[in-house]
Task: inverse folding
């Protein structure tokens, strides 16, 4: 159950874990800026970013597989972006020309391959590699009509710019994802909340109640595991009354879902009322000044990291502005 | 026919070294028993009863439920089992959701395949069993008192006519009157329909008054399975199970120590204690 | 701090009046148990004292001052209440954070907070659990954290609103022990609301409510002997009291000794 409350948080004792959460959030934002300011074609700067990323990942002492898990989610998007750029971006030197002759036969074969892929997807390890193989195979077979006449002929042209742009896009996105994961893997949700509250404080000048928002987030974090347990209990209670999601007509299924939702709503509402009473009785006044147990303090390491992050961003911007890159 | 555990072990966390249920062998028969399951918090009581209607499958061993052999690999339908073994969770009023009391009670029977007509008549029967008057049938269950809502929830399980009725701490959160009424209700059901009632309870007075058999769990193992008198008569063993005496038994022992009464068999409930004090029940006009 | 209800009338809805022209005075430093069936109005009294609800007519006075929406925030600093549901009053992500919640609201400086949290967690035997999350705690443990949170605020009034009704016997015992220690060691005004007669034996004063009216008011011994009124009020008479009542009206030769022994037992619980 704790998995849900801690999100992705993975506990080890590392330099990065020990940094102030505000440092990590600010550094992440600075890294995001950095990644987007990298000019196209600057492989050296891109390489530097990747090296920096790997260094930080190493410093977190979190197993690599955790980072790979977060990348797995967006693999499809990345592959799509790459192929889209590679095949349809027509500037720069021409690298490759592929003749495509589409016929009924090779469309049929293409469809068969797609269906096979979708069907066997669950059993395949490293799904995205198979997806790449699928796309390449389809492009390959579309070269030849195989049987009968070609219905339509055109040429796929791969230009240098397309490949480079595609490459930069996917590396940028991967850098972003992994840097974000560094934040969530090394910072407890409550620390993140405290950091956000501090960072959002200027918003109080425009009458946004940041302390109240932070309290709301804190309470949500507190109750996520409890809600999880209660959902399980209601599921079991209704299962004891014959609820079975595998069978039943649509109408029955709707009633079954309602039999889970309504109790959860009621429990949550009762909780909200009880909690409000308890908080009020203990002197909580939303928006009022209150002291805090949690203390965020910047240390030497924090200043070092912040200056470093700020430094490389400013450096890159200056270089770009001066057309050095 | 009944529920039979054979060398059942179970772990919530499959990597844990200590199992929640440790090699349990146990029999529960459909023959009008009132079984109480006792044990400290975390001893495995809730886990045990969730195996009785196959909400959980054993990691090792087998649970035979009315002829069905449930093991780790069981893949068949379980609806029939859920119907035969009715399980009522703690604070069952939280499972209510329908617009009217009757509709909510009909939910179970309808899921188990009864038509609207049949389900309705079963629901009405169940209402009568638990003492819910006709004026309540068309009301929203959420307008009832806590005690009434609990009875609606129990009726919801009774309406499917299970052979065994299992309740996890049925009286927690009720006031004394509500508690007494509920227990008498369960006793009535047992006597009138011959169903076996199994309850998880922490209240020794309930055990003293109603139980025909007691099962004690300790750290996932069955450490006692038998009648209540031998359990309460052996004080040292009782304490080793982290259990206490029923109030009347405690009084009896204290009074005996002071030389004020004598007995061979430990009185467990108030009625027995009265007899030993030779109190004239008729004269005093009490129940 | 004394609490007084002067002719208080209150209902959650216009039709049903839970309390009508209700009068009660609780002196400073007393421990009072208020018992009654569900719906008798006992929890309502608690809510009126801490100002979660307002009387429709009449006055609720703390130290002679009538509570109003204007002064309730100030008075709340002097009152603490522990509710029935262990989960629904646990605000913090950890035990430490939850005990801190009330202190933060009272603007206690951080260094002092840390000391108080350690001190009061130890008082309720939860000092080893400061970093624990509530979902890993038992009901009794969560209630002890709630008590620590209230004690840490060092209020003059502490109310236990059916604090044990959702707990198992072990949890209940823990809480009752904690309350007994509190009574012994502190001079606070303690109000215990319950429907279990066993829990009232160590109070200074017991008040029995039935349908919003006080039907009994006296020492535990005085109140517990009124078996009939207790039963009428929907309370379950404990075995020892039942026996005392039956023996007193019987012809048993050794009834004096029996009754004495039974009273001793009752108060030793």
Result:
């Amino acid at each position: 159950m704790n998995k849900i409350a801690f999100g992705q948080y993975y506990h080890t004792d590392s330099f990065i874990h020990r940094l102030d959460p505000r440092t990590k959030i600010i550094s992440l934002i600075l890294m995001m800026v950095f990644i987007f300011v990298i000019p196209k074609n600057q492989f050296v700067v891109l390489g530097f970013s990747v090296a920096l990323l790997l260094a930080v990942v190493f410093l977190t002492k979190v197993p690599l597989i955790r980072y790979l898990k977060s990348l797995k989610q967006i693999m499809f998007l990345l592959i799509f972006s790459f192929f889209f750029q590679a095949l349809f971006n027509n500037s720069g030197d021409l690298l490759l020309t592929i003749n495509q002759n589409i016929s009924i036969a090779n469309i049929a074969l293409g469809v068969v391959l797609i269906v096979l892929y979708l069907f066997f997807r669950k059993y395949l390890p490293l799904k995205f590699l198979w997806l790449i193989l699928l796309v390449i195979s389809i492009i390959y077979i579309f070269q030849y009509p195989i049987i009968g006449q070609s219905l339509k002929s055109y040429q796929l042209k791969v230009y240098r710019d397309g490949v480079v742009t595609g490459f930069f896009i996917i590396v940028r996105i991967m850098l972003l994802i992994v840097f974000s994961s560094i934040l969530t893997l090394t910072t407890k949700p409550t620390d993140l909340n405290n950091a956000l509250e501090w960072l959002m404080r200027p918003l109080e000048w425009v009458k946004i109640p940041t302390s109240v928002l932070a309290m709301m987030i804190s309470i949500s974090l507190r109750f996520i595991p409890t809600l999880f347990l209660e959902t399980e209990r209601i599921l079991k209670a209704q299962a004891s009354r014959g609820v079975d999601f595998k069978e039943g007509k649509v109408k029955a299924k709707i009633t079954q879902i309602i039999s889970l939702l309504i109790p959860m709503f009621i429990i949550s509402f009762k909780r909200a009322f009880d909690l409000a009473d308890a908080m009020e009785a203990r002197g909580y006044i939303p928006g009022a000044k209150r002291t805090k147990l949690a203390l965020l303090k910047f240390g030497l390491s924090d200043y070092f990291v912040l200056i470093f992050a700020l430094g490389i961003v400013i450096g890159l911007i200056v270089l770009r502005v001066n057309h050095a890159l | 026919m009944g529920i039979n555990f054979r060398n059942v072990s179970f772990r919530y966390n499959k990597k844990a070294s200590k199992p929640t249920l440790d090699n349990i062998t146990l029999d529960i028969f459909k023959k009008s028993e009132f079984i109480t399951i006792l044990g400290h918090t975390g001893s495995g009581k809730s886990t045990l009863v969730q195996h009785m209607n196959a909400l959980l499958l054993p990691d090792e061993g087998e649970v035979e439920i009315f002829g069905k052999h449930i093991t780790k690999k069981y893949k068949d339908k379980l609806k029939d089992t859920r119907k035969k073994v009715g399980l009522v969770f703690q604070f069952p009023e939280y499972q209510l959701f329908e617009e009217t009391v009757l509709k909510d009670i009909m939910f179970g029977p309808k899921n188990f395949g009864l038509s609207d007509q049949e389900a309705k008549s079963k629901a009405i029967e169940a209402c009568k069993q638990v003492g819910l008057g006709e004026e309540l049938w068309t009301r929203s269950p959420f307008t009832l008192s806590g005690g009434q809502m609990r009875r609606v929830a129990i009726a919801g399980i009774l309406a499917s006519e299970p052979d065994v009725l299992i309740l996890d701490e049925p009286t927690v959160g009720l006031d004394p009157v509500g508690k007494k009424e509920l227990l008498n209700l369960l006793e009535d059901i047992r006597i009138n329909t011959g169903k076996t009632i199994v309850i998880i309870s922490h209240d020794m007075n309930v055990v003293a008054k109603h139980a025909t058999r007691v099962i004690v769990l300790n750290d996932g193992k069955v450490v006692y399975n038998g009648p209540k008198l031998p359990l309460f008569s052996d004080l040292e063993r009782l304490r080793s199970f982290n259990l206490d005496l029923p109030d009347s038994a405690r009084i009896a022992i204290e009074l005996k120590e002071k030389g004020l009464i004598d007995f061979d068999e430990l009185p467990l409930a108030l009625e027995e204690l009265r007899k030993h004090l030779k109190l004239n029940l008729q004269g005093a006009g009490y129940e | 701090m004394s609490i007084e209800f002067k002719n208080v009338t209150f209902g959650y809805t216009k039709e049903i009046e839970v309390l009508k022209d209700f009068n009660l005075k609780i002196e400073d430093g007393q421990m009072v148990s208020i018992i009654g069936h569900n719906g008798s109005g006992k929890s309502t009294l608690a809510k009126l004292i801490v100002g979660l609800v307002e009387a429709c007519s009449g006055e609720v006075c703390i130290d002679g001052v009538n509570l109003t929406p204007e002064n309730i925030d100030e008075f709340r600093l002097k009152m603490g209440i522990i509710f029935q549901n262990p989960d629904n009053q646990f605000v913090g992500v950890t035990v430490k954070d939850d005990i801190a919640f009330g202190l933060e609201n009272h603007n206690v400086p951080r260094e002092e907070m840390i000391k108080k949290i350690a001190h009061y967690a130890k008082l309720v035997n939860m000092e080893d659990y400061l970093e624990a999350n509530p979902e890993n705690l038992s009901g009794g443990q969560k209630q002890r954290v709630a008590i620590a949170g209230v004690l840490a605020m060092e209020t003059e009034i502490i109310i236990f609103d059916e604090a044990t009704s959702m707990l198992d016997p072990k949890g209940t015992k823990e809480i009752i022990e904690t309350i007994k220690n509190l009574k012994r060691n502190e001079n606070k005004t303690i109000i215990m609301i319950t429907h279990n007669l066993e829990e009232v034996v160590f109070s200074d004063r017991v008040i029995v409510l039935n349908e919003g009216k006080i039907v009994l008011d006296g020492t535990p011994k005085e109140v517990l002997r009124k078996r009939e009124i207790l039963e009428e009020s929907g309370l379950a008479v404990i075995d020892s009291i039942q026996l005392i009542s039956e023996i007193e009206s019987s012809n048993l030769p050794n009834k004096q000794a029996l009754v004495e022994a039974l009273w001793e037992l009752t108060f030793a619980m």
Remarks:
- The CA atoms of residues 103 and 150 of chain A lie 5 Å apart.
- Chain A touches chain C through 32 residues (CB under 8 Å).
